[in-house]
Design a protein that fits this description.
Blueprint lengths: L2 H14 L4 H11 L7 H12 L20 H12 L6 H8 L3 H9 L13 H11 L3 H13 L4 H12 L6 H32 L1
Helix pairs in contact: 1-2, 1-3, 1-8, 2-3, 5-6, 8-9, 8-10, 9-10
């Protein structure tokens, strides 16, 4: 998932929670202060999601390939499996920015390496989705968004449950993801402070 798509997912999350375009813009700028998408783009996507759009992916532009089965993607997938690398279709999909189902079609069709196709059954698609649940990636992104905004774990749980309703992860899973992001963030801040202290000592 690209950074831009991640921010769009957070905009969609804000729409589900009832935030206005102006409120959403402030939250996006706060959470992604290093590289937020523009105010214009934030408002554009806010309106799209408010009007019922579900996908955070960009629309296909005129002149761009309408398929993800490009020669480059096919070659990349073929190379990964021909080398015997232990890689999942989910990992390849995230790496290439395409749907997991497209990776499956390439692997199991005429495009991928024939000798590897027996390893990748349709049940892999089902098992991964079943294990993580519908919209897992979106919820994971939104939980990190809440953490970056400084919300507490309890607040984040309620926001995720309220936005995703019956598709929401369990409270335990939300708490686990939140704590992993918070620990990662705290660790990064400690390292940053330590580096600053060392620089001061050198001066």
């Amino acid at each position: 998932m690209t950074e831009r798509i991640g921010q769009r997912i957070c905009i969609k999350f804000c729409v589900k929670l009832g935030y206005t375009a102006a409120e959403t813009t402030r939250l996006i700028q706060k959470a992604f202060k290093d590289d937020p998408i523009s105010v214009t783009q934030t408002k554009l996507w806010h309106r799209r999601f408010r009007d019922g759009r579900e996908s955070a992916e960009s629309d296909a532009r005129s002149g761009r390939p309408t398929t993800s089965k490009t020669p480059e993607n096919i070659e990349h997938i073929r190379a990964a499996y021909s080398k015997g690398e232990k890689v999942t279709m989910r990992q390849l999909a995230d790496e290439l920015g395409i749907q997991k189902s497209t990776v499956y079609e390439i692997v199991s069709g005429d495009y991928g390496p024939k000798r590897e196709t027996t390893k990748f059954k349709e049940k892999e698609l089902q098992s991964e989705d079943s294990a993580k649940g519908t919209g897992y990636k979106e919820q994971e992104t939104c939980i990190k968004f809440c953490s970056n905004l400084g919300h507490s774990c309890a607040e984040t749980v309620q926001m995720i449950l309220g936005a995703f309703k019956e598709e929401a992860l369990s409270e335990e899973d939300i708490e686990t993801l939140f704590n992993s992001f918070r620990c990662s963030k705290d660790g990064g801040e400690k390292e940053s402070k330590q580096d600053s202290s060392e620089d001061s000592d050198v001066d």
